[in-house]
Predict the structure.
Amino acid sequence: MDTAAPYVTGPAGEAASAPFLGLVLGVVHAVGWVITYWWVVAAAAIGLWVAGEVVVRRLARKASAQRMALELVPSRHFDPGIEEIFRRGVQLARASTSMPWWAPRRSKTVQIRLRADGSSPLRYRIEGPAGGERLLSITPFGPGVTVNRAGSLTDKPRTHVVRAEFILRGRPTAPLREVPLSPDPLQPLVDAVSDLRADLGDLAEIRLDIQRAPKTSLRARRLQLMTQARRMERREAQRAARWIRQDALGIEDSLAWQVQQLATGKNSGGGRRLVMPPVPRRIDPAEALGKLADDDHLVRVQLLVMCASHTEGRAEARLAQLQAALDVFGGGSRWAMRGLRVGPWRIGADRWPSRRAFERRWNLGHCQPPRANWVQLDELTGLLKPPTVHCRLPLLAGDLPTFAHGNPDLLLQGIYRGPDGRRRLVATYARETLFEVGVGKAGGGKTERALAQAIGWAHAGGGLLFVDPHRDSWPRALPFLAHDHLMERIALIDLNAHGPTPQISCWNPIGMHQGQVAHEVVEATADAYASVLGWDDATAPRALTIFTAALAVLVAVNEAACHAGKPEDQATIFHIRSLLTDPAFRAAALTVIEGRLDEETRSWWHTVFPTLPADAFAVVLNPIARLAANPVTRAFLGQPVGVYNIRAAMDTKMIVWVCPGGNGPTDRLITALLARDLLRAVRSRRDTPEDQRVPFRPYFDELITLTGAAPETIAAMFEDFRKYRVHVHGMTQLLGRLPIPVKQSLVQNASTLASTAGSQSAITPITAEWGDHPSPEVVASLDRFEHYMSLNVEGRRVGPVRITGPHLDDLFADYARPHEAAALEHAAQTAAGAAPLPQLTHRAEKQLTRVTRFVTRHAAATGPSTRPGKKKRYQP
């Protein structure tokens, strides 16, 4: 019996197949309708896409409004390691996701902005979601970078603007070139914008957007790359098989193969040789995917560049420079400008239809990179940090102001040659230039630069003191100072006694006719002598005591003479000998000053002095005898009323040139007296409110000579003068030959530290202060008038930068008045009270008689008190 089910036919079978046929017919009808009315489907799809895009853009715009900006300012010694930079990159990638859940992906990005507009070499900003501010504010760079909250930047419209978007070209799986950290990877970009001119409206900005890799896009990209790799491998296998078959056929058809067959007796009629084609090899995902094989630290990037200027052609040239700078990062893949070039035109971000999308992404900070822009964080090492210590930054107009003749707020420093070859005079602000130090070999340009600075300061109305032991600076500066408005402010103190009829000025260090304080005059003169002669409380206590006591008496005598209205009867330092060796003069002097000295000093003269042996005075009198033996110093110091008054010169903005005359023992003593008097005069400005103290600038040429006479005094000047608005400029050939206190004070307080060429051993102490950048070898090979210097501008150090020292004949050519030089010298000597040397010498010889007559007459008028315990008051 057949148990198989019968085949169902008839109405029941037709009912079972009806749904399937209906579905097929429905699909066929739907496909037909779509084919017929395809434009309806396309319009609906486009409408949905447009609506979705509108919603996404609005959400992205809303999310972009909640962004923040940070500006990173690196220190001069910022030198991060690879690990620190990599950690910063991880922070940036993580911060890009600190957005609300509804924010579109294009707004989930962190942007690095490298900007140059002529105000700074390269500003480094980070912009990202507001939620990532705390994450980005604390950097792994530590104290090497200062993070500041930054506001929005608004640019004024420029006449000419060019835009560009860069994409990765080359093998999509190949990395960018691994650029070393030294020199800085940002150096090509800095060089590309180093000649920006703010006055022409130049602007260049690079924006790098970093976005974490979206998983779906990454999987699609990997699938595409693997499919492409397999297809290429099959194609290569097919090509190899084809070539193998062709080679085999070629061999069998060759004459050599046929001869071989006949020789061996083999029958070739059996058919052709079987050839096995090569099998496609297995694709290794790591090799096929390259840098896209791992998910870790893989990001998408968008690189946008914009350049602008008011001058035609400069923006285009800047973009070309930046494009060349980005070529440095090129390796297996490289940055290339997106677009199509047609003849002289480029269809890209500057043209329709790409320009509008570029501007939207630029203005809102949206990231919509091409699919090829996948990179690992370590490929972006050079862009994830600000410029480091290994980056050579240009000197912009905002870093050093441009010098303008006649501007009292600026102090000339030299000539800077920019990267574009332009030369400009640079300056520092006078209020910030407190102390300057110039080092270098003789003839290198130190004095020429100081003279140019001093002349510029003088023409701007400032007061100065120029101390030059060798006098060479005076005739050099003379033609450029020979102006009517300067002649009445210039005084020349020249002790070189040159010419047939030398003119010598005069100065009484212990004179009281200028209103000095008695104990300050005594202290300044005694310290000057002690400094030159090496006296102190341990080596020469008795000499120091005798000299100080004698000065106290003579200063009191001069005070009495001025009080009596007879300043021409004042004593000089040469009268110390009479005071110590002439009992009659001493008794009269002590009688005159009765009541002007303290009890201890009077007691010393009456009790201790008579017990001193005669040979105790030799150590005091010997230096005075040397001064008296020189007719120039005798004439200069032997006048009762000297014209030289450095305190008055400071307060009235005088221009004083002092030429001591050499570096012998006598000259050193004169220099020490002048230096100590300057220190006393400056400290006396404490009686003037700080805002009323007139700025004054002493220039010390040949510091080795000057500090040999008064090392502690010069050191104290560099430590104290800033408080009194007196700013010292010192020049020396060898920093190592200066006394240690002077050298330490110079380097510690120098606002400007400059060096010309010299031996490497002499230059090393200066370059050590700069961290040996530049090295001693570089500085030692400088040409004449070339300087490396570090300067202070607005509270920060600039440099060391290479500056060409100014040359007077070039810089002040319009100021030269050689035909007025003789008139200026005569006016300067007149202002200093100069007189013929024989006349002053004769007056100095007669001064002892005048002083003796004064003290004798007034001693008789005063007389001793007739009653113990009572003193007769002096009546002028």
